Amino acid sequence: MISISTLISRENFSRILLRSVFAIGITSILAACSTPSTKGPSYRSSGSAPSSYSSSIAGFRLVSWQDLPGWQEDDLTQAWSAWLKSCEALRKRNGEINWRQVCFQASEISARDKQAIRQYFEGNFQAYEVRNSATGKESGLITGYYEPVMAGSQTRTATYSVPLYGLPRAWKVTKPSPAPTRAELMSSGVLRGSEIAWVQDPVAAAFMQIQGSGKIRLEDGRVLRLGYAGTNDQPFKSFAQWLLDRKEITRGEATMQGISAWAKRNPGRVEEMLNANPRFVFFKELPGNVSADLGPIGALGVPLTTERSIAIDLKAMPLGAPVFLSTTKPLSSQILQKLVMAQDTGKAIVGGVRADYYWGSGDSAGELAGRMKQDGKMWLLLPR
What we know:
It contains 10 helices and 15 strands. A hairpin with a 6-residue loop joins strand 12 and strand 13. It is an alpha+beta fold and 384 residues long. The strands form 2 sheets. The protein has a 6-stranded mixed beta barrel. It has a 6-stranded mixed β-sheet with strand order 6-7-5-8-9-10, covered by helices on one side.
């Protein structure tokens, strides 16, 4: 996804393993062995913080389940598969939080039983309001990201002439230091022979680089899944900001959609704009046995789930944890309150109360992700 927050300030490194952000909305585009309680949920509210987890940038306050706005209305069956994916990874991890017991108990719950799932979370977890340590505020920035999907080919054609590159073969042995900038790479011939797919739109290809992953629908109906393989180690600079600085677009147009519109009006300047970002992202083809319906792999090492996965700051909360999110949908006051899983991270995701919301794959998800820059609150769920 590309939030302006992300286009302007980040490259999707939720793909630290792979990475999903949008924040000037193009800010972007542009354990302790505690045994879970077998008793019912506790409705105490106090200022006590979790004994098994601490953060250098976030503060935590124990609250009751009744303090979570929209908790009772959320259909938790929609979040259950995402939680089970988190458990696949968390069972294998050693750390300050003991996830094994709650994940073991999850295996005994029916994925269709709404009441059992709610009782599971309320009986085995405690909810903590998250605050930014530096400011004491309980609200923060929520942006969005997505997985690009575009038509393409594995060979160059008249229609598909924009290459997506794998890591140059020579770089797999020794990467030059400093590595060439994007402009230098595109003019040097170093990338010749490293093409792994061809698409139609150079700006869409650049957005896929910012997201760090994507799907290419081939003409024979197959889907080619591409994941993050590395970069040229140059700093990321937003071409959204480049356009703003030159008054080519307004701040309201500094979205994925606005940038694409500018490119269509100025086809002869597209390369100049793209070269304003010296960073270049390389892809790799993911295994063919990976279902095309699954989301990209996040930093936790499991597929992301549409509208139930987020990217977080790893200094703020543990990767894989359940988080209750309260925010609004892009450019609206429509409430968005859901249980989500912290399964990803990204370089532009910085702060105690900060999340990048995964909208899914394709153009409709990209429309939402590209415009999302909302205030929101977060509650971290930890085992009792």
